[in-house]
Sequence to fold (211 residues):
Amino acid sequence: MTESGAAVGRRIGIGLMYGLWKPRVLGAWRVPVTGPCIMAVNHTHNIDGPMLMGTAPRPVHFLIKKEAFVGPLGPFLRGIGQLEVDRTGTDRAAVTSALKVLEDGGVLGIFPEGTRGEGDFASLRAGLAYFAVRSGAPIVPVAVLGSTERRSRVIRGLPPLRGGIDVVFGDPFEAGDGSGRRTRTAMDEATVRIQRHLGAHLADAKRLTGR
Fold:
């Protein structure tokens, strides 16, 4: 896992995402130019991760379920700086790798809902709060919004090819309360704080784009 690998992944993402769809990127200037940050992304399509890799202004290291690391795809994903995580329990190796990305001043990408669904940030897992509070890295909310018209899809789980997709970056915010506490109560409070920020950003993004 290297920053150069993630940079290669970004170049691949740019080629694929702009070649197959029509991304419109809004608010990329809000992403910190340097230093660690966490991009929290809603998740409705299978391409949400690659789409962010191809449209974010910095290389992104995503936490990706281990089931995706099968056959030749495994070495490829690792080679472009992506992180394998076992979602059936606490994956300490994945936690360590993710914190290392942030310690090195990189960008960690997380789907805080855990899996593809409605993409409305209605149910957040505790992992995002832990990484944010533990590292002190700001969270950048990201809304990926695209057509959901099923009859025009070539492959299930993907938006229509050459369809327009909006990627909207929000203002960075701190998840912690400034106390540095890492107790269960502090994490619960941070999760509520995060959900409020992400929900507000998603609503703003929908108003802005008309999606």
